[in-house]
Amino acid sequence: MAPPSLPPASSVLATLSLPSNRLAAARLAPERGGAPVAAQPEIDHYRILRTDEVDATDAPLTAEERASIIATAAAAIRSTGDDFAGTARMAAKLSIADAPAENFETVAAVIATLPAKSDMVNHDPRIRDDRESERVVEEERNVRLSAFLYAASRENDNDFHLIVGQNPQGQEEVYMTMEVSGLPQASADTFDKLKSARDSFQGFFGDKTPGATYDFYDPPIPIRVEGSLFFDMSHAHGQSPGPPTLHPHMPVIWEVHPISGIEFEPGPNA
After folding, report:
1. Which end of the chain is less crowded, N or C, counting CB atoms within 10 A of the terminal residue's CB?
2. 94 close to 134: Cβ distance less than 8 angstroms
3. pTM above 0.90, yes or no
4. In contact, 135 and 127? CB cutoff 8 Å
5. CA nearest 153: which of 114, 201, 105, 109?
């Protein structure tokens, strides 16, 4: 049986390899006077497990899309471009909270500080789901933490949907959604930060960025991430987002959205 963080073999359509810089960093760190990165597992690549898993509200793969992934390992692409193409709570999603970043040790520690879903659903004033819906006071928070990227997909609005969890070596299995946003207009105050985060994400994965279905990463990829808290009102009722394999361990529909900074494979002092 596969570990809980990995999808069942029946859902894996293709396997790819993504180079890692961690082994080289571990060997170079002592020469640079830093603590060895070797405390993390020394690996030279990650496996990308390209699956047929999608969010409950998304259309499943067509037979043609499934056959194409199996034959070519190329992601199923249902949206293109970098501009944000959604409408739900657009004003909030494309804004960055006006607050200093709070530092956390784990995803679970972030979740422990979040208001209950019922409080947000019954919020006064009511949280609308239209494009002009701005942040409410509970969302005026930025968080920063070291964590691990377990899976990711690309949504139809051009956001990259990241499933972020805790250290696979000994910490509780719990995950939270964090999103690399599609871009606002170039004149927006947040454009530069959101573009930098998007460039970092796409630069790390190159031609292996995820598509309409979830890619899983084995082992999960260490990241350092910062962004604004966001309550996903559009999923307050019905099935919440997340790949079926990890969904049982995703206790909240709160997100970090948008990600305003992300670093892959950070050093020990990041």
Report:
1. N
2. no
3. yes
4. no
5. 201
Give residues with Cβ within 8 angstroms of 224, minimum separation 6.
Answer: 144, 145, 146, 261, 262, 263, 266, 270
- To the nearest 10°, the Cα dihedral for 25, 31, 35, 38? 40
| pLDDT tens for each residue of 187-208 | 999 999 999 999 999 999 999 9
**With b meaning 16 or more CB within 10 Å and e meaning fewer, what string describes 33-49?**
eeeebeebeeeeebbbb
Q: Which of 9, 14, 5, 6 is nearest to 210 (CA)?
A: 14
Residue 186 has pLDDT above 50, yes or no: yes
φ, ψ of residue 89 in degrees (nearest 5): 50, 40
CA angle at 159 for the pair 157 and 164, rounded to the nearest 5°: 145
For residue 8 the two structure tokens come to 């069942």
Instruction: Quote the tokens at residue 120.
Output: 């947000």
Contacts of 141 (CB under 8 A, 6+ apart): 97, 99, 102, 228, 229
**Over the stretch 211-246, which tens digit does the pLDDT of each residue have?**
999 999 999 999 999 999 999 998 998 888 999 999
